């Protein structure tokens, strides 16, 4: 009764009616009249309904205004993120539906409380949750809550692929991929312009060459033109061609015959200091090849009235020949491009060169540098190995080495080379597979596709040569 009396008193006051003391008994009798009691009952019910309605509206507003943060997604990249109603405190929803997810390439799983999918568009986007809360009648309309979602663009799509200038006198194809027999083996090689060059319509600076030589020898050459050198694309092409031409020269062909005798003495242990004699042979013959390349670059620079530095290029090359006792491999390297040979069952790796990092503070050395030939370490730039057999001879520029091996310390680790081969076999984000088989008709296209792998921060030219 006291609550009812206060309710009516407050109601009357809102209309400017105040009950004086001498009318209180009358007021009490007024409240007890049957018709007024019924009205009071209705007032209480309306009051309760009003409060309930307010709580519903307040709860709806609370949900609509509640900040929900969803992890950012990336176009084209598989996406999974929690979207848990219980975590958001939405246990009082009696009905809901989610719209606009499909347009983003996503779906919602109520069973797993997750958003999943592969986003198809980028931007500051949103999807909507339509819901009803406890207390609302079944026929009540749904309420809308927009959930913001940032979908970043595919970083690959931010790079332009602008054609290089075919009218340039030193122009070369932006990509070259070849598969060819080479001696008793096969060579798969690809050289591809990096994204950083394609983005500004500049040239492929890397290059390669290979050749079956007389007397059973074969040579593979890789050169990485320095991006800061304005004619390095020509420097790398000249360096590769220069090595091949050197070993095709009749005088060099004649000189290489001596190796047969030295190797026979070494294998049969019929001579003195056979290892030293072989090392001296490699130093003399491959050293002359490297020096001749240097001199050719020097002559070209003078003829074109450019600096030798404008032609700056690294240079690695390997000669191999099959003998009865196994394979002889001879190598030379200057710069940061590794040469590796994997044994038949891929359980050991033999590095055929050391790369110019670390000691020089990361500074690459080039075949154009005269000091290379005057340095006391010049003799250590040559390699000789006699192996019973091998599975792969692999040569690469730093455009492959940097993203796939990262640091020099990983190169002697056979596990890293096994990972590299697994990567080639399709264990990568793009599922790009290169089937290293001599009967694979798509091998060139497969390697070309694999060479487009994404590696954040690694957008240089890429060259990879595999003898198998």
From TrEMBL:
SMART domains: PP2Cc. Residues 186-467 form the PPM-type phosphatase domain. InterPro entries: PPM-type-like_dom_sf, PPM-type_phosphatase-like_dom. It comes from the Bacteria. This is PPM-type phosphatase domain-containing protein. It comes from Hymenobacter cavernae.
């Amino acid at each position: 009764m006291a609550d009812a009396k206060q309710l009516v008193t407050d109601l009357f006051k809102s209309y400017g009616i105040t009950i004086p003391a001498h009318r209180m008994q009358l007021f009490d009798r007024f409240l007890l009249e049957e018709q007024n009691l019924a009205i009071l009952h209705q007032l209480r019910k309306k009051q309760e309904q009003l409060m309930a309605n307010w709580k519903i509206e307040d709860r709806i507003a609370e949900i609509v205004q509640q900040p929900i943060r969803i992890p950012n997604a990336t176009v084209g990249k598989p996406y999974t993120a929690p979207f848990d109603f219980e975590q958001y405190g939405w246990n009082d929803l009696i009905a809901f539906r989610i719209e606009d997810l499909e347009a983003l390439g996503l779906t919602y799983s109520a069973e797993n409380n997750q958003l999943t999918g592969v986003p198809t568009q980028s931007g500051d986007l949103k999807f909507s949750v339509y819901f009803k809360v406890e207390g609302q009648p079944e026929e009540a309309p749904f309420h809308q809550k927009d959930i913001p979602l940032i979908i970043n663009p595919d970083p690959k799509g931010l790079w332009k692929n602008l054609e290089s200038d075919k009218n340039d006198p030193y122009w070369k194809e932006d990509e070259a991929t070849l598969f060819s027999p080479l001696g008793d083996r096969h060579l798969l090689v690809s050289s591809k312009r990096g994204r950083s060059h394609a983005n500004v319509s500049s040239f492929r600076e890397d290059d390669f060459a290979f050749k079956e030589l007389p007397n059973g020898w074969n040579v593979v050459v890789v050169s990485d033109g320095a991006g800061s050198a304005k004619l390095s694309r020509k420097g790398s092409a000249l360096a590769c061609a220069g090595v091949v031409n050197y070993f095709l020269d009749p005088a060099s062909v004649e000189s290489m015959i001596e190796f047969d005798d030295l190797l026979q003495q070494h294998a049969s242990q019929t001579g003195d200091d056979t290892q030293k004699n072989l090392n001296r042979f490699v130093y003399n013959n491959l050293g002359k090849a490297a020096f001749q390349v240097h001199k050719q670059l020097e002559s070209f620079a003078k003829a074109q009235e450019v600096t030798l530095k404008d032609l700056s290029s690294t240079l690695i090359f390997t000669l191999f020949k099959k003998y009865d006792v196994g394979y002889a491999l001879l190598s030379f390297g200057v710069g940061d491009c590794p040469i590796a040979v994997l044994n038949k069952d891929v359980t050991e790796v033999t590095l055929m060169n050391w790369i110019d990092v670390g000691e020089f503070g990361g500074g690459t050395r080039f075949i154009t540098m005269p000091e290379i030939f005057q340095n006391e370490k010049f003799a250590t730039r040559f390699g000789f190995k006699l192996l019973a057999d091998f599975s792969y001879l692999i040569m690469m520029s730093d455009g492959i080495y940097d993203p796939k091996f990262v640091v020099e310390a990983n190169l002697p680790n056979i596990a890293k080379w096994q990972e590299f081969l697994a990567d080639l076999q399709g264990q990568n984000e793009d599922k790009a597979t290169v089937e290293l088989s001599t009967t694979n008709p798509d091998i060139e296209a497969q390697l070309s596709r694999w060479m487009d792998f994404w590696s954040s921060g690694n957008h240089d030219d890429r060259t990879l040569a595999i003898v198998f």
